[in-house]
Specification:
seven-stranded mixed β-sheet; about 35% helix; homodimer; alpha+beta; about 290 residues; globular; 60s Ribosomal Protein L30, Chain: A
Chain lengths: ~290, ~290
C-alpha cells in the first residue's frame, strides 16, 4: 500500500474535497481564503544522507511553503514541530527553518519541541490569497497548455550522486513569487511537483477528468540525455510548479516557464502515443 | 535540559513574543486575529499505555484545540500529520481525530501521512477571534482573581491507576465554549493547564511580572485528600483553563469556574506563606 492508497482509505471520513489538494482552504468571509499545509519529514526516510541540520530545517519549511506557493497565496506564518534525538540539534535546525521562511516572506511564529527516537519535523504553513485567484489542483480545461517552472530533475540527479546539483536537493526553493504571478494571471490549475512530474500530471488529469499529452522535444532538461529525461519525468525532490492555462492567460503571464504539453480529452498522461506509467516518489507500506 | 530551557535557547532566533504563548497570532487586518497552535505527540512518551488508536487521534486533536480555546477563539480547521508504524492504524486514529474536531466545532481539513518507527502525530489547529477579545498568557494585573475551570487532577489520578477517572486522561475535552465566554467577558490573561497548574501559574506570573497567592481551601478537588491536592497542583493531562480577571469581569462571566487565588506584587507562586516549586509535567532531555 502506498500513501495515495492509504489516503483513499480515509477519504470518506475526511471528505473528497479535503483530501484532493495539498492545501486546505478556509474562506475568511471577506473574499480572501486562508490556505494551509502540513508535512511530516523524518531523518531515515525523508532527509538525504549527510544532510546538515540547517538543511533539514530549510527543507522542512520549504516543502510546506511550496504547497502554499502552488495556490498563489502569500505565505504568512510557519509553525515548526520538531522531535529531536539530541537537543543540541535544535538550534542549527531552527536556523535553517527560519532562514528558509524569511527568504520566502514568511515568519516562523511558533511550534513545539519533543524528544524522539529520530529527528522528526512537521511544519505547517499558511498563507492568504484572494478567493478569485486561489489555484487548486482541479480546473484543467481541454485545450489548455501544460506548463512547468524551472528545470526539474536536478534534485533526483543530486540524489543519484551528481554533486553539482546538490543545492537543488538540499536547499530547494519554493516558487512563491512565480506561484502568485501564475495564479493572478488566471491559470486553470496548479500544483507543486515534489513527488515527480508524471504522477503530479495524473493528479491534475484525474481532478479535472481530462487527459494530458506531453511534447518531449519541449522538456527543459538539465542535460541532453535519456537519464535527464527520466529524472525530469519521474524524479522527486524538485520544487517546480506545474500548471495549466489557456493561451490567453499565458500571453499575460510575466514569469519564466516552459510549455511541455496540452490538456486533451481522455484519462491518461501520454508522451506522443506512449501512455506514461502512474509512478513517482511515494512511500510504500509493508514490503 | 527540559523543554522550557531548550525553548529558551532558540528564543533570540524566533523572537520573544513568538515563544511566549502556546498559540501564534496573525492579525487578519480587519479586526480579527488568526490563532494557531501545533503539538507533536508520540506513542512511547505521550500516549498512556493501552490507549486505543481512536483515543490517540482524539487526544492529538484535543491538545491543539485546547490551546486555541485558551485564546477565546472559535476553532475552524485542524490539520493532522501522522507517522505510522502500521498503516491499518490510520483509520481508527483518524476516526478519533475527526470525532474530537467535530465535537468542538472544528473540521479536519487535511494533513499528511508518513511511515515512521512509532506512531507520531502532529496536529495544527487554527481559530479566529476578534482582536479585542483575544486572550494571551500575559496581562495579569495585581488585584485580579486567579480562576480555573473544571476539577483538575483527575487525569493524573487516572495515570496513577484510578480507572474511574480514565476518560479525563484518554478523551480530554478542550474548553472551547468556556474559553470564548471568558475571553469575551474580558479576562486579563488565559492559558490551558495541560502541563500542570503551578507551572502554568508561573508562566502567567512571569509573563506579567507579578506574583500569585493561592487559597488552598478553595481548590476544586476530586476528593478530600492530600493526594488530590498534589494532583491538582502538579498533575498533567487535564484540560482546564486558567485565567485571571477583575471582580468586575467575573460578575459578568456566565460559565463555571472556581476562584483559587489572587494576583499580587512579587514574582513567585505561593500557597499561604509557602513558595511552590516551579514544577509540573516537562520532558527532560538526557539523563
Amino acid at each position: 500500500m502506498d500513501d495515495r492508497k492509504l489516503l483513499a482509505s480515509i477519504r470518506t471520513l475526511i471528505g473528497e474535497e479535503e483530501t484532493a489538494d495539498d492545501c486546505a482552504a478556509f474562506p475568511l468571509g471577506d473574499g480572501r481564503v486562508l490556505v494551509s499545509s502540513t508535512d511530516m519529514l523524518h531523518e531515515t526516510t525523508d532527509f538525504p544522507q549527510g544532510m546538515t541540520e540547517f538543511e533539514m530545517g530549510w527543507m522542512s519549511v520549504a516543502v510546506t511553503l511550496s504547497d502554499i506557493a502552488s495556490t498563489g497565496a502569500s505565505p504568512s506564518q510557519v509553525l515548526v514541530a520538531v522531535g529531536l534525538d539530541r537537543p543540541e540539534r535544535l538550534l542549527p535546525f531552527m536556523e535553517g527553518a527560519v532562514s528558509c521562511a524569511e527568504t520566502f516572506g514568511a515568519k516562523v511564529a511558533g511550534g513545539d519541541i519533543d524528544s524522539h527516537q529520530e529527528l522528526t519535523a512537521v511544519t505547517t504553513a499558511f498563507g492568504i490569497v484572494e478567493e478569485r485567484y486561489c489555484c487548486r489542483r482541479s480546473g484543467a480545461q481541454e485545450g489548455d497548455k501544460v506548463c512547468i517552472t524551472g528545470v526539474p530533475g536536478r534534485a533526483q540527479a543530486a540524489l543519484d550522486g551528481r554533486a553539482e546539483y546538490s543545492r537543488f536537493l538540499l536547499t530547494p526553493e519554493p516558487q512563491v513569487s512565480a506561484g502568485q504571478k501564475i495564479a493572478r494571471a488566471g491559470a486553470s490549475s496548479m500544483m507543486d511537483v515534489s513527488d515527480g512530474i508524471v504522477i503530479s500530471l495524473y493528479d491534475i488529469a484525474d481532478a479535472a477528468g481530462v487527459g494530458i499529452v506531453l511534447d518531449e522535444s519541449a522538456f527543459p532538461l538539465f542535460e541532453d540525455s535519456g537519464y535527464a529525461k527520466t529524472c525530469f519525468l519521474f524524479g522527486g525532490g524538485d520544487f517546480g510548479l506545474l500548471f495549466t492555462a489557456s493561451d490567453a492567460v499565458l500571453e499575460q503571464l510575466d514569469t519564466e516557464y516552459t510549455v511541455i504539453g496540452q490538456v486533451v480529452a481522455g484519462d491518461s498522461v501520454r508522451m506522443g502515443d506512449e501512455v506514461l506509467p502512474r509512478k513517482g516518489y511515494a512511500h510504500v507500506w509493508g514490503a
